[in-house]
Amino acid sequence: MGDERRLRAVVELAQAMAAAQALPDVALAAAAGAREALGGAFAALAVIDTARGRLRVVVNEGVLAEGEEAFPADESYPVGDFPEIAGEPRARVESLAEGASSDPRAEAQRRSGRSCRVVAPAVLHGRIWGELQVARGPDEPGFTARDADFATVLAAVVAAGLAQHERLAEARRLAFTDPLTGLANRRAVDIRLDEAVERHRATGAVVSLVVCDINGLKRVNDTYGHAAGDRLLERFGAVLAVCAASVPGALAGRLGGDEFCLLADGTGLAHVERAARDLCRRAGELDIGSGVACGIASTAEAVGPVSSARRLFRLADAAQYRAKAAGAREPVVAGRGGAGGAAVALADAPGAPGGDRRGLRGRARPAPGEESTPR
Fold first, then answer.
1. Which 3-state string (H, E, C) describes 237-253?
2. Whether the model pTM is above 0.85
3. Taking Cα atoms as reference points, which of 14, 22, 93, 78 lies closest to residue 46?
4. How confident is the model at residue 98 (pLDDT cuts 50, 70, 90)?
């Protein structure tokens, strides 16, 4: 392969990694690009698991042998079997003939019909992150020292791509995460709820939204200081996360101030109600604050057509206000009679009291005597 073709292969490898989103896709793009660039039949990318002291294979790509998996669940080897990992990060060419290599993977690769390979460490943040290897079959020419030099360049490109992926993943995490509680923030909830309502309109899938308002946050702030208020928010956020984990695919979020939510998409309302009741119970057992008011709106209830995320949110919000006004220790469900449920069913009607207090992206008006304190 000429220098121009190799340069083009490096560019294509970098572009493929940049276009990938999840880490498995990034790893697959790296392995595939390296294999094509070096003219191999097989490629693998492995990462050093420092906690376990293992070299774990992330992806196998190309012509796979019997028993090899593209994304193995746990194909790993003791790091002690690879003393070169702690040495100079330099690529090497190896024959896979019997007895030619002490690498524990060499025998299995020889049996699979591969005759030679080039192995290059991937250095990330100044340390060896893992390694890239590309192998050829018995009917292909062996790798050369020049190939090893090129593999070193490819491994550096892979490491840079992985570092960029880490930075972007962290930026995405910060963009959609509440910094105090670690839950999803309002932006993340907005996006997920919009998508869920669109699926509901297209397929009829059930969408349920629980809106929660912590009781007594202002009193905690005024009496004990904002540090204590932050602890209440953090502790309630942890309780909400535990309860959300019991609902498959649910999203727990903090909308701002003392407002939180739990969004369930494609799960039955009964499951969501159990989680919301558990949330009310657990919040009432906290040694700080005065519990929580919860309102639920679901497309599984008789609340009329739900054509937008805004409408579902307003229904849940109105139910939450009824729960707070009644001092309810259990969630109030929009569209359901009893405990103020009948009033909630009408809360979104034009001109209804409280029916336009807040849209999905607006701010809540505090209930009488319980002013929300922005954090």
1. HHHHHHHHHCCCCCEEE
2. no
3. 78
4. low
